[in-house]
Design a protein that fits this description.
Layout (H helix, E strand, L loop, with lengths): L1 H13 L1 H6 L5 H4 L4 E15 L2 E14 L2 E9 L3 E4 L3 E16 L5 E29 L9 E26 L2 E27 L2 E4 L5 E23 L2 E12 L2 E11 L5 E13 L2 E12 L1
Antiparallel strand pairs: 1-5, 1-14, 2-3, 2-4, 2-13, 3-6, 5-6, 6-7, 7-8, 8-9, 8-10, 10-11, 11-14, 12-13
Amino acid sequence: MRLGIAALVSMVVAAAGAAHAQPAASSAERGMPDQAFFVGAGAGYSFTSFGSQSVYNKGISNVFLNGSQVANGQASGPPVQTFLGGSQSNPSPVVQLGYFQHFANTDWLWGGKASYAYVGSTSSVQNLVIPQYGSSSNGGVSSFNGYSVTGSYSVTLGHQFSLMPFVGRSFGKGFVYAGAGPSLSQVQASINNVVGYATINGKLTDVSGPPQTFSSNNWLIGFAATAGVTYFLTPSWFMDLSYGYSQPGGRTSYINSPFYNPGTGGVSFSGNLIGYYTANVSAHMVALTFNKSF
């Protein structure tokens, strides 16, 4: 999809020779205003890539027998890299507002637009198992080797805002343009139903007790780029067909949560679940909006 920007930028650059070969057209000849504010709305189709994510879990535990502490232990493992189902695609509403103005006596123009889209794309992985290697302070309690189990791990790209200056060149009743600027994206992530297990004296044991769920909801500043072509249906109404790319800044969320497991047979556990999980995402969108200039 990034090739879309390169192709449209090439069109803009290639048109430079024509701009020098003939005088700039007037507003009436162009069929579009020399300068204008505009506001528009329409629909897009987004393609969201969730790529590789990293998850790390560690458990620190106290072991009690009939209410008296008999050992403490810990277990952890290397971060696990996982893919959240590749790319997701879905329709998205789009609104935008902006301004453009021709440079004096040329067909070249400059401007900028602010846009909003609701992407609403989610990807997840089920039953994520992370091996862990541990130790115990009591020789009578074997090592805490085991694993943590996560019922599901998901990342969602929600609202997106962008502010992009652009340059372009008019032709007939429209213009081509390309630009880039900052973006602001809502990225949500959740790691659900986490349980820590350890092998204690040869028996696989639920150490952390009831499943725990962790979530984050962040607004991330990132980068956005766009390229497009417009066509004026009348001097005050035009269509805008555009391609956009956005890359929110990556986000790592951290976990430090206490647990208590009353256990069975007089053996109980308390401690902390510690770790982190990432929320990496990027998006492409093709959009068509109808705009009013004034």
